[in-house]
Structure prediction request, 148 residues.
Amino acid sequence: MTSPLPHTAICVLDTQVLLDWVLFDDPRMRPWALAIQSERVRWIYCAAMQDEALRVVHYPALVKRHDPSVSTQNVAACFARWGQLCRAPQPQSHLVCTDPDDQMFLDLALTQRAANLLSRDRAVLHLAQHASGLGLHISPPERAAAPR
Prediction:
């Protein structure tokens, strides 16, 4: 049996990574999903992130593969059960993303001192080296070891 971490690690999930977990059961996300579900990692989000995820499940490419009403229920249930809602982050100037839609993930991660921002977005991943100097690890979930 492993001993609990003295401080639960904090992570932020971008929309694609969240959908990889909730809709696609992507095996690359499973270690992180298990860490969140076992409370070794605290997943934080703001209302804008939830709104975006619930909007994305209605995109035509996803509607072809998944019933949007079921997807909406599953995503909303995941936020409610496993996530921790935080206030909208204040914009920060340390990391600025070329894609304004992704800035909220960076702002929340830095504001809440998250250890990991799990993303597959190129614009976000491009900032990984600079973010590491600020104490934030940015990577796809398969390149970051989930706390055990």
